[in-house]
Amino acid sequence: MLDLLAQSPIAFVIFLTGLLLSITIHEFSHCFVTDRLGDPTPRMKGRLTLNPLAHLDPLGALALILTGFGWGKAAPYDPYNLKEPIRDTALIAAAGPASNLLIATVLSLLLKFGIGGDFVALFTIQLIYINVTLALFNLIPIYPLDGGKIMRALLPYQASLEYEDIMERYGTAILIMMIFPWVGGESAVQGLLTPAINLVLKIFI
User: Fold this and answer.
1) Which pLDDT tens digit goes with each residue over 135-184?
2) Using CA atoms, how far apart are residues 124 and 202, in angstroms rounded to an integer?
3) pLDDT, tens digit, for every residue of 178-202?
4) Which of 3, 105, 127, 159 gives 155 a disulfide partner, CB atoms 3.0 to 4.6 angstroms apart?
5) Which contacts qualify for 2-10: CB closer than 8 Å, 24 or more apart?
6) Which distant-in-sequence residues (6+ apart) come within 8 Å of 48 by Cβ?
7) At what angle do helices 85-112 and 118-138 cross, to 10 degrees?
8) pLDDT at 119
9) Beta partners for 56?
10) d(Cα 124, Cα 65) in Å, to the nearest integer?
């Protein structure tokens, strides 16, 4: 993203604005589903809002600016307030990526119907790219990403406990290692996600 800032400050602002909006909706969706499943924790902590400031994570924001991949503040929840803690945790986790794919779908329809001029189309394409990337990035099965919680729900009980223990200890460190560039200036996340992102973008654009 810093390269984009040097090349075109306007494009950087557009991209950053779209990214901020997308992350906000992503995190709000987690909190909304948590609230609907009977856990009032997000509401009590002031997270059931579309105010971007409520959902920004300092480390995630820094990673975002430096690498183009980042995350928002983890949505708070209390598993003891959930009827089926493992299943409901997975549903809460899935709500974020699902919201981004829904946004991308709606924007894709607007783009195909030619709503708006060239500038609107450019902004729409940027938003589609951002939301597809955000959805797929968060589905990587590593804590603190949503994919880690979804993976835990899919594993057998004992394996899920072991997986959770490893991810809680080392997940963030593994994620940071994966998003920062190594050999050839490309990060492990870029190598992993770029083919998948391009495939999904062919459907939406």
Assistant:
1) 999 999 998 899 999 998 899 989 988 998 999 899 989 988 888 877 66
2) 15
3) 888 776 677 888 888 999 999 999 9
4) 159
5) 2/65, 2/66
6) 28, 31, 32, 35, 42
7) 160
8) 65
9) 72
10) 21
3-state secondary structure the chain: CHHHHHHCHHHHHHHHHHHHHHHHHHHHHHHHHHHHCCCCHHHHCCCCCCCHHHCECHHHHHHHHHHCCCCECCCCCCHHHCCCHHHHHHHHHHHHHHHHHHHHHHHHHHHHCCCCCHHHHHHHHHHHHHHHHHHHHHCCCCCCCHHHHHHHHHCCHHHHHHHHHHHHHHHHHHHHHHHCCCHHHCCHHHHHHHHHHHHHHHHHC
**Tokens coding 62:** 């820094």
